[in-house]
Amino acid sequence: MYNEIKLEKGMYNLSGKSFTAALEELDPSAAYIGTELESLDAFERQLKRYNIRISGTDCDCVEKFFTSTDTAVLFPEYVKRCIAKGFDGTVLSSVTAVKTVCESGQYLGCVMDDSADYVTTAQSVQLPSATVREGSTAVVLEKYGRLINASYEAVRKQRLDVFGVMLRGIGVKLAVSVVKKAMSVLAADAAAVTASSLSYAALAELYGKFDCFDMTTVIANPADASKIAAMEQLSDTKISADGKMILPFGSELIKTSSVPANTVIGIDKNFALEFITSSGLVMETDKLIDRQLDQITVSITCGFRKLTPEAVKKITIS
């Protein structure tokens, strides 16, 4: 049961396992189906066990995690989850077709040559072929990170929900730096519509460039996104239940400063981009457990690869 588990530092250092995965092995969530704890994962059950409230009117302060050696072990996972929530809630999740975990610093994926026309084939005639082969250029994974300076004395009386918002903000900004690389990979060598200005006609032409694939997503920097939103033809544009702007083509409009000025990218998000990472977010856990919060480091090592060139087009404004 969750209230009998001995929490230890070493649970963060098990090869190939996250802290939550280690907890889940000792306390499987499947055992709680049909109970009041069904909606909680193994980490959240530990918060309940020690009555650590991370939100709400009775939210605890940071120092609640350090009332015992057991509860101190939970703090790095709390910090990591807050940052990850900010990181994962950004543009990145809206433009990635697939996520690949690579154990080395370089990734050599396969590529497909599928340029032959899809046409009818007579009897006894060999079918047109698509060829899958190993890529010739490796993606070099790059490290993105942040050093957070925050002494225990400065944050121990801070409410956990407020501290969590600050950490999520760091996650958002970390993701923005990563998304810049993603946008540069998408835009590189993409088939382009050239226009003298950003207009509805240019957007319609971009939409018409997609053949087998659909234009599910239009990505622009804030200035260009605002121009698109202000177009007269979009006055009746639908807003989805979760607040996303859906263009008449059925495309979601995404705004990010990671796209350069005078460029608008259209993609089929189901086929365009591969997100490659050697791990999830990485942190130094021992210092956090020992209340040595003067420097909290968080980083991710990752890269991107365009999977299907035909699923990416762009407008270049001259």
Description:
- The protein has 318 residues and is an alpha+beta fold.
- The chain has a domain at 182-273 and 306-317: hypothetical protein PF0899 fold (2-Layer Sandwich).
- Helix content is 30%, strand content 22%.
- It has helices spanning 19-26, 42-49, 69-88, 92-95, 152-155, 160-187, 200-208, 222-229, 285-289; strands spanning 98-101, 106-107, 110-113, 131-134, 139-140, 142-148, 191-195, 217-220, 238-239, 245-246, 252-255, 263-267, 273-277, 282-283, 296-306, 312-317.
- The strands form four sheets. It has a seven-stranded mixed β-sheet with strand order 7-16-12-8-11-10-9, with helices on both faces. Strands 1, 6, 13, 14 and 15 form a five-stranded mixed β-sheet that branches.
- Helix 3 packs parallel to helix 6.
- The mean pLDDT is 90.
> Count the helices. How many?
9
So, CATH architecture of one domain? 2-Layer Sandwich
Q: Report the sheet-strand fraction.
A: 15-25%
Low-confidence stretches: none
Largest sheet: 7 strands, mixed
Number of beta strands? 16
CATH level-four homologous superfamily name of one domain:
hypothetical protein PF0899 domain
Could you tell me how far the N terminus lies from the C terminus, measured between alpha carbons in angstroms?
64 Å
**Which H/E pattern describes the elements?**
HHHHEEEEEEHHEHEHEEEEEEHEE
Overall radius of gyration: 24 Å
Q: Tell me the CATH topology of one domain.
A: hypothetical protein PF0899 fold
Q: Structural class, from helix and strand content? A: alpha+beta
Shape: globular
Strands in their spatial order, largest beta sheet: 7-16-12-8-11-10-9
Q: What share of residues is helical?
A: 25-40%
CATH class of one domain: Alpha Beta
Averaged pLDDT: 90
